[in-house]
Amino acid sequence: MNIADIKKTATEKMAKSVETLKNDLAKVRTGRAHVGILDHLRVDYYGSPMPINQVANVTLSDARTISIQPFEKKMIQAVEKAIRDSDLGVNPAVTGDVIRVPTPMLTEERRKELTKIVKHEGENAKVAVRNIRRDALQHLKDMEDVGEDEEKRAAGDVQKMTDKSIADIDKLVADKEKDLMAV
């Protein structure tokens, strides 16, 4: 493994950590409805678990309501049960062949709880990035055919990548906190 490979691997892993944080933060519910909160839910579709968006049409009917229209009528109860049994804290209502999921307003206390969760997720992502940096620096030290100047230059590059990733994480967390605290 050469210096370029180490830097490339570290860059890819750091980008994955930031992307994972983005996905985790998308699951944290804000006061507005968005279809992304249902992405992690699975529905029993003829014996195999399927994401809701693969068995139904999921749309926003207004700022606070998600509408779900299953492709097959017999899937209505399965989709409703999956939403009701989830940890989202929402109460779906069936109207004909459409399931409506109203998103209740968040209380101030719940907003603060969710902000703590967001900060915790951000810290976990920062720890992951720092661990990637540590591993990359260790690989650089373990290389035998590299001069001290090259190693220091590469270590500086790895630190710059780390700083950029941590700045991205801080921005994602700050944006989500701002979104959560907006009434």
UniProtKB/TrEMBL annotation:
The keyword rRNA-binding does not apply. Signal peptide: none annotated. GO terms for molecular function: ribosomal large subunit binding. InterPro entries: Ribosome_recyc_fac, Ribosome_recyc_fac_dom, RRF_sf. Residues 21-181 form the Ribosome recycling factor domain. Keywords: Cytoplasm, Protein biosynthesis. Its main location: cytoplasm. The keyword Ribonucleoprotein does not apply. SUPFAM superfamilies: Ribosome recycling factor, RRF. One of its GO terms (cellular component) is cytosol. It comes from the Bacteria. GO terms for biological process: cytoplasmic translational termination. It is found in: Cytoplasm. CDD domains: RRF. NCBIfam families: frr (TIGR00496). Belongs to the RRF family. Responsible for the release of ribosomes from messenger RNA at the termination of protein biosynthesis. May increase the efficiency of translation by recycling ribosomes from one round of translation to another. This is Ribosome-recycling factor. It comes from Usitatibacter rugosus. The lineage of its organism: Bacteria, Pseudomonadati, Pseudomonadota, Betaproteobacteria, Nitrosomonadales.
